[in-house]
Amino acid sequence: MLTLTDNARVAIGTMLAEAPGSDSSGLRIAAMDDAPGSVGLSIVETPSEGDTVIDQPGARVFLESSAAAVLDRMVLDARPGDAGAVEFRLGPQ
Which pLDDT tens digits describe the chain residue by residue (93 residues)? Predict the structure, then answer.
């Protein structure tokens, strides 16, 4: 299963706190149909049916089933990017 670093948890928690929504909101990671092997990120109110939910202190992540298979045994990290944006990176566990 996808692992989150401390930096990723903080970044996701900050994004969720700043986004309109409810306490059940999370960062959804889904496979992109137009780019095989790529994933897209979005803030959503609730997980979709079939999503795997990663609920850790400060961060909720919803993995779409195809993305969950691709991201198994991966680590999600975050670091500051250009103009204060967050840059997420995936790597092996």
Answer: 899 999 999 999 999 988 887 778 999 999 887 777 778 899 999 999 999 999 988 899 999 998 888 888 899 999 987 777 889 999 998
As a whole number of Å, the CA-based R_g of the chain is: 12
Which residue range(s) make up the domain with 73? Answer: 3-92
> Under 8 Å CB-to-CB from 31, ≥6 apart: which residues?
38, 39, 40, 64, 66, 67, 70
Q: Which CATH number characterizes residue 45's domain?
A: 2.60.300.12
